[in-house]
Amino acid sequence: MPAPETLGPRVVLHLLSRAGYGPRPGEIAGVLQSGPTRWIEDQLDPGPDPELDQRLSRFPTLSYTTSRILALYNADPRSIGVILDEFTSAKVVRAVHARNQLEEVLVDFWFNHFNVFVNDGFDRYSISSYERDAIRPNVLGRFRDLLQAASLHPAMLYSLDNYLNTVPRRVGNRVVGGINENQGRELLELHTVGVDAGYTQADVVEASRCLTGHGIDNLNTSGQYVYRTANHDNDSKQVFGLSVPGGGGEGDVQRLFDHLASHPATASHISKRLCQRFVADDPSPALVERLAGVFLRTDGDLREVTKALFGSAEFWAEAFGAGKPKTPLEYVASTLRGAGAEVNQARAVKAVLQDMGMPLYACNPPTGYSNRGADWLNPSSHLYRMNLALDLAAGAVSGVAADMAGLVRTGGGNPDDPRSAADAINRVVFGLTLSSATLGAAASLPTSGSVTVPARVGGLLFASPDMQVR
Amino acid sequence: MSGDASRRVFLRGAGLAAVGVGLAPTSLLVRTARAAAGEKVLVKVFLRGAADGLNLCAPHGDPEYYNLRQAIALPRPGSSDGVVNLDGYFGMHPELAPLKPFFDDGRLAFVHAVGNPQVTRSHFDAQDFMESGTPGDKQTPTGWLDRAIARIPGSEVTQAVSFSSQLVRSFLGPEPVLVAQNLSSFDLHARNWRVEAETRLRAMYEADPTAVGDTGSETFEAINTLLRAPTPPPSNGAAYPTGTVGSSLRQAAGLVKVGIGTRCIYVNVTGGFDTHSNQLQNNTTDYRPLGQALAAFATDLGGLLDSVVLMVTTEFGRTAAVNGAAGTDHGTGYCMMVLGGRVRGGRVLGRWPGLGRGQLYEGRDLAATTDFRDVFQEVARGQLGIAESLFPGYAPGPGVGVVA
């Protein structure tokens, strides 16, 4: 395998499109100069990004705690609309403008792994804290820390009903409360060891017993995590090879997290999901097992696991394959980035993501959105993709500024000449990878027309099959 | 789920895709429309999240139901918010009341205690088993409806339509399927250079041999078919509720009425069916638009309902007893609804296993007495004329007698 540096713009495009949301104009040349290895190192150690901070400064509610959001909502119910608009808009702005692209992709990946649904009651008020406080700080940290932060965050405890999961208690002659299996099951099936690990219904119940008592203080006012001793089942438990002695109290769940986070099945399950997101819909089992080995050796150090992923031959070989179909978010963000667009107002972008079947933070099932690109290919969504490209190039996406003539000039092309314009966009956005059919169809456009050359050439190239894969 | 190789390959419709821009494939459309008039259509509505069969069609005649369900049991018929009595023993959820006339005139049936023999309480696995049609085998590369479409003549992209945000597992495989949420304004945004844009984009996608290229070509075929045969508005005063299920069933009825060769329609419904807590309120929220939309669909189609069989299904049932949070956890047997002019309705079909201690599966769930594949095959046999098994490794029985 030659060093990535020698492999040219195709390899840089591949890296920027997998580890990030694709190149902005000029970025391929810049990374070619400094070297892909250097870029990966920078991305694995995210530095300050004052330009992004400046853009995000127009969303003051991003830093609000759940309690503060609840107080604002209680004072004026309309406030939650503004708060969620800022929260979801920030996701678009980060994807399109963040310097730390890998961090944004990882936040998206891990949020989706520990998915909660924005329209689910209390999660409307706690989802901002969930991503900011539980997911984001841990994406390059230890899986064990991420697991605990996500599992015991009120947004998750609400989403999977664990705030209602209690030991059955006798009050007078009535039994109050009881086990709720929802989070116990998904903790095993989705978050850690995976559905094929071999656990049983009894393990689900025992895991749920460990989780009893971990709840939420007051759903309407504080919304903070709380552990209630009286709700905890303090007897001994047996969960999937782990013996939890009686009397462990809130420590039961710590033992369970320790056990699950270091389990080989978790290492494999997490590795497979990472490979699916970054390498291929059906990744090679050998790669998955190598990454699982790194996971186990490093005590679940996600920086090391992610680094190993980008160090694998399988990852780089994908630069020369057919490509992995982009999800709607990946397509939209990469198109806006490629066009050099500035997102002044994200509303139209969020609406088109909804039309494509991937509304932001609005995946209802706890499984999250599919990491398989092939799952996202369909005619309806595809029409929205092509129309976003055509609209963007024509300056018709509300709140988003993109200058196709400027893009052509950035690539050293002549905005009045279709062939020169297509070549320039091929260089700047596609790392000279466009197929001859795609390039030819755009380059042979007539010079005259009621729509400008850069708008037509840009619209076609961003709508092309080449843009649909990463 | 496996499969790159299984991704549909758009070959059978390639002749249509090659038709030039601006030239209506008129002869083909006319032929299609003629063939489709009164052609039978299978509609599958999937309630994702495990909709509770015991509150969809509640055994109000069994005291054990009230013992198990306690505060979330639906009151007996005649009480406030009580079930709508069906046969003296079962009653349907009060929010399904708009469907009562269709039950009474024999066009709506319930099939109770349906399930999958490989019991899993994982939503994901159970949905996979239901949609691949191969319980216990997650490697099956195709979905059961893809296999069904492969066995009927025709190759239009509108032959199979899925109202969903993604290609559903049931349609996974080589047959073309139009996945859509909204069929209105299904056209390219290229004012003043529409023909030029389509010509060039088509050329790009036709040159792409991968699944992306296939998707692009399907998109252009769908655009041209739908532009030339827009789906008509509701008839007979049918009033669809707002929201996904209403919108999808309104468009589904439009496809049946316009007759562009559609034989199979899938309606994906997500919502709060996974009622681990606060079940009564969640059921009300989700069953209301469901009942309204199904009734509107039947009203809208009028006599054309004779050519349609619509089945409502889910992935598994819920625990027989209430849990600690006024909800229910993942269970086994569930309840299907089947609606259509040729349905032998007005009955609750299937063998009822009972709710007694010794009758519950693993002491907690309504047992499953009918394999879902028997019902699916029965409907496919009646609607699509498919006699051979659609389920590898399984020979479906005669079914429950739900389709005449």
Structure overview:
The complex is a heterodimer of chains A (470) and B (404). By secondary structure, chain A is mostly helical. Among the domains of chain A are: 160-261, no CATH class; 328-468, no CATH class. In chain A, 53% of the residues lie in helices and 5% in strands. Chain A has 24 helices and 8 strands. In chain A, strands 1-2 form a two-stranded antiparallel ribbon. In chain A, a hairpin with a 2-residue loop joins strand 5 (237-239) and strand 6 (242-244). Mean pLDDT of chain A is 95; it is low at 1-6. Chain B has one domain (4-384): Alkaline Phosphatase, subunit A. Chain B is 32% helix and 13% strand. Chain B contains 12 helices and 12 strands. Chain B has helices at residues 14-17, 26-36, 53-56, 63-69, 100-104, 123-132, 144-150, 194-206, 211-228, 244-258, 279-301, 372-384, and strands spanning 41-47, 57-58, 84-85, 91-92, 108-115, 160-163, 178-180, 264-269, 308-314, 334-340, 348-349, 370-371. In chain B, the strands form 2 sheets. In chain B, strands 1, 5, 6, 7, 8, 9, 10, 11 and 12 form a 9-stranded mixed β-sheet that branches. Chain B is globular, with a radius of gyration of 22 Å. The relative contact order of chain B is 0.21. The model of chain B is unreliable at 1-35 (pLDDT under 50).
